[in-house]
Prior knowledge:
The chain has 476 residues and is of the alpha/beta class. The chain is built from 16 helices and 15 strands. It has a four-stranded parallel β-sheet, with helices on both faces. The chain is globular, with a radius of gyration of 26 Å. The structure holds adenosine monophosphate and zinc ion. Residues 27, 214, 239 line the site of zinc ion.
Amino acid sequence: MKVFNTLTRSKEEFVPITPGKAGIYVCGPTVYDFIHIGNARPMIVFDTLRRYLEYKGYEVNYVSNFTDVDDKIIKRANEEGEDPSVISERFIAECKKDMEALNVRPATTHPQATKEIPDMIEMIKTLIENGHAYEKNGTVYFRTRSFENYGKLSHKNIDDLEAGHRDEAHQLKVSGEDEKEDGLDFVLWKPKKEGEPFWPSPWGDGRPGWHLECSVMSKKYIGGTIDIHAGGEDLIFPHHENEIAQSEAANGTEFARYWMHNGFLRIANDNDEFEKMSKSLGNFKTVREICGKYDPQVVRFFMLSAQYRSPLNFSPKLIEASKNSLERILTAAEKLRDVMAKGNVAENAETDAKAVEELNSFVKRFEEAMDDDLNTADAISVIFEMVKYSNTVADSVSSDVADKYYDMLRILTDVLGIIIEKKDDVLDADIEKLIAERQEARKAKDFARADAIRDELLGMGIELKDTREGVKWKRV
Length: 476
Ligand code: AMP
Ligand code: ZN
């Protein structure tokens, strides 16, 4: 598979550190409110990367953090008269609900900054010891110029950056950072202020800087060198540039081999120009709001309708188009289910053989699109061709071939996180049959079998309740 590496600005063959394994770190949201659909883009895109690598046989260690200590969280906590941890825990829970709705699988680990403070202190100590950081009145700064390769990710020249910082004296005074040795230096540890959460450290009570969190958590949960580091393109500078400086200066090893950045989700302003969706511009729509209006599957499908590096414009019209496109796939899946249920035997071996050959070619082309820097737009086009073909041959092929098509369609759409099975695929009659079988088993005192049937039903999303009036069931 080739991925576009921001570091080299080119598409490169993905070669993992350990064959068959991939360690991926994705910068997660700051949890002070519901996430908006712009925040959902990296979640969906990189969840799809994870699914595709797993489809290709990789064992993926997927780590995505929650930033749960931050000025915005503290501000909201003060406004609501709550402890900041109450706010962050509330919005972590809400974010997880949104992720589930969008079929974004939980990460292998979702670390939280506030739970990793001792390791952050350790990394700062190392950086001070090796001369890459210094303390001034309870604040610890990273000595940016001490890191030779600063700017390598964002392709910025350090002297240009310095020039951009010259007029900042006043601003620095306001933020209490006026004791920096150099305008380019950034904060690793900041001293506590009244009403803010804090942790003890060798430099006094305080809290870590944002960039440091990701350096520490990726190291702890993946290792000193990670395969793929990802996030939105707004994080390239300074966040990811600073992560590289801290990690490489502390660990002495390459921090991340591939850097993948998604483009922005945009929305039209009053002049009909598309702009980045963001909290600060106030032009955002929450995932909760959009998923109340549209099927979350449609939202996910819409997100993947463009290659992840391209900007993606949000509009009700485009969502509507995604809805119709997804409908086409779901209808084709239904048709295949019908054919499978008929149990047609092969009538025309040639038609069957041709259909299987076509199927293999669709799969190959789907993989080619995904191998080309996760081109989900092209991969979806291949799926369209596949369903179009399957619609035309479904009535003339055997049930076996229909079954092959259905299976493959299920597997490929699952890579995209789209579910084609009907939720109510399990018919009431089948449920009743299993319940009756369970009653028989109980009568025969075969409780193991009875329990197994209960579990089987639960796996299908059916919960049983034994009542005085008999067994009742409901979909869960
Ligand atoms: P934040 O909570 O702002 O740090 O954002 C969490 C993640 O969402 C980061 O990876 C951001 O780059 C990403 N993100 C924020 N806004 C957008 C947007 N409009 N389009 C795409 N990604 C975004
Ligand atoms: Zn990060």
